[in-house]
Write a structure and sequence with these properties.
Layout (H helix, E strand, L loop, with lengths): L4 H9 L3 H6 L1 H4 L2 H13 L3 E5 L5 H6 L5 E6 L2 H13 L5 E5 L12 E7 L8 H11 E12 L5 H14 L9 H11 L1 E13 L1 H8 L3 H13 L2 H6 L8 E12 L3
Length: 256
């Protein structure tokens, strides 16, 4: 099989499906509480979770939506989501395999959409956002949650380097400015933006992705060689744990 970016993402995450279902970082978070309020108010008939991963957004949306579609590149990840949904008694979740840049759905067939910690894996960031807008009904809401890159190139470069060493399927964490421009050009209007910081426990962070030891050593070497201001920005600890910046953007689909 040809080694494409999509097959690499699927191969990277498939064997780790259960790890992501059980991951405390992904299963918890203040953003999920905010998202629950948004979905509850929207009460969608049909909601889409792009890059569902461990399915935590899908499980949440299933409490308020009539039907939820969990989309992911990995069949193993989707199988874990389907199994967990059954365990939770959530009969209104369907799973669909596919890339964010080529959503296998008709125009305007969803009335709510969310994507959490997925966009930094997309081959085509702008293309994925355009597809999200295409399948969302005009005037309806979408929520995107992801790690964002600092505006300063010094910090941006450090973040992308350690992310790629940890996970070769990583493409890019985008700055808030890049997100804002891409959303606007894709047909979304930003309604609310929230940011916070999240501590990454180094041992758990690399274990979840089963990062090879040589890559772990390379990450630690980059951290050790980083400037004082870089170490301060990421609050790098002696064991390699650090802080990342996370944003949650609530948007509305504009009329074409």
């Amino acid at each position: 099989m040809e080694r494409t970016h999509e097959t690499m993402v699927a191969a990277q995450f498939g064997p780790r499906a259960r790890d992501y279902v059980q991951s405390a970082v992904h299963a918890q978070g203040a953003d999920l509480e905010v998202l629950a309020n948004i979905v509850s108010a929207a009460a969608p008939e049909r909601a889409l979770d792009i890059g569902a991963g461990g399915g935590h957004v899908s499980y949440l949306m299933a409490r308020y939506a009539a039907a939820v579609t969990a989309l992911d590149l990995s069949t193993q990840m989707l199988a874990a989501v389907a199994a967990t949904a059954r365990e939770k008694g959530l009969a209104n979740i369907e799973t669909v395999e596919g890339p964010a840049e080529r959503l296998p759905f008709a125009d305007g067939c969803f009335d709510f959409l969310a994507s959490r910690y997925s966009a930094h894996h997309w081959r085509d960031f702008n293309g994925g956002l355009r597809e999200a807008r295409r399948v969302l009904k005009p005037g309806r809401s979408a929520v995107f949650v992801d790690v964002y890159a600092p505006a300063r190139p010094l910090f941006d470069t450090h973040l992308q380097a350690v992310e790629l060493l940890r996970d070769p399927s990583h493409v890019r964490n985008y700055t808030i400015a890049e997100w804002t421009v891409a959303l606007a050009t894709s047909g979304f209007t930003v309604e609310r933006l929230q940011t916070w910081r999240l501590r990454m426990d180094f041992a758990v962070w690399v274990a979840r992705m089963r990062t090879p030891q040589e890559n772990q050593r390379a990450i630690r070497a980059l951290q050790a060689a980083a400037s004082g201001e870089t170490r301060e920005h990421f609050a790098i600890e002696t064991d390699g744990s650090f802080l990342i910046d996370v944003m949650m953007i609530e948007v509305r689909a504009a009329s074409w």
